[in-house]
Amino acid sequence: MNTRTPLIAGNWKMNKLTGAASAFAREFKTLVAGLMGVDVLICPPFTCLAALREEFRDTPVGLGGQNMFYEPDGAYTGEVSAEMLLDAGCAAVILGHSERREIIGETDEIVRRKTRLALQTGLRPIVCVGETLAVREAGRAAVHVRDQTESALAGLSGEEVRRVTVAYEPIWAIGTGRTATAADAQEICSLIRATIASLAGGGAAAEVRVLYGGSVKAANIAELLQAGDIDGALVGGASLQAAEFAELVRLARVRT
Predict the structure, then answer these.
(1) Residue 99 appears among annotated catalytic residues
(2) Domain residues for 118?
(3) Of 15, 127, 177, 185, whose CA is between 20 and 30 Å from 168?
């Protein structure tokens, strides 16, 4: 039986100023007050972290960063370090999001370095993997995702791997309104778990949470979470509205 607690993580991307973020938090924490059986994480822009830290103080809602640099400090203008995220109240950080891979040009090697540093610093990495439509249509989705997963986790101990969350985000389903079917998502998430088992053993693989991300909303979250290897979601646009995001959290909570 799957005993992993579902995780619903909201990725706000480059949206919301501090006033809007605070208003969201005040509404959201009221809507989810008292809910148990699900972990909730919000990853806002860096500029909103301080405001949300105050709003979510003494609540179970956690904060995460959307990115970090792969060196602990130094002359890296415009970058944010792992320790800065911890100092701002973050418990986790999104790494290797498809938008950073596709737009910024982040490589598997960069994602691997960031993952290792996050773990060393005390942050829980949410490592994103996923294929483009061209890769999927060429029949290489499984190989592509397996290679990304192996690269990100290479050299980590079993204990370190247990602290990683992997998010499968098919790039063709992000912000497009297209969603992988529950069967498609389960197939790749199962592959990710098998890859983790081959790297770190079955015990670690049984503990790691594997999320799905790609046009997730209240209307499809329940079906996705019925799959045995999908332990939650990395949510984009639907996490920007307090009521819809709260409904997502509520639906994840009732997973059986």
Answers:
(1) no
(2) 10-173+188-239
(3) 15
Of 55, 99, 106, 169, the catalytic one is 169
Query: Closest Cα to residue 170, out of 135, 205, 124?
Result: 135
For 223-239, write each residue's pLDDT tens digit.
999 989 999 999 999 99
In a domain, 249, yes or no: no
Q: What is the DSSP letter of 155?
A: T
Report the alpha-carbon distance of residue 67 to residue 92 in Å, rounded: 10
Whether residue 144 lies in the annotated active site: no
| Number of domains comprising the chain | 1
| Three-state DSSP class for residue 64 | strand
Residue 137 burial (10 A CB sphere; 0-12, 13-18, 19+): exposed
Which of these is catalytic: 97, 106, 131, 247? 97
pLDDT tens digits for range 54-63: 999 999 999 9
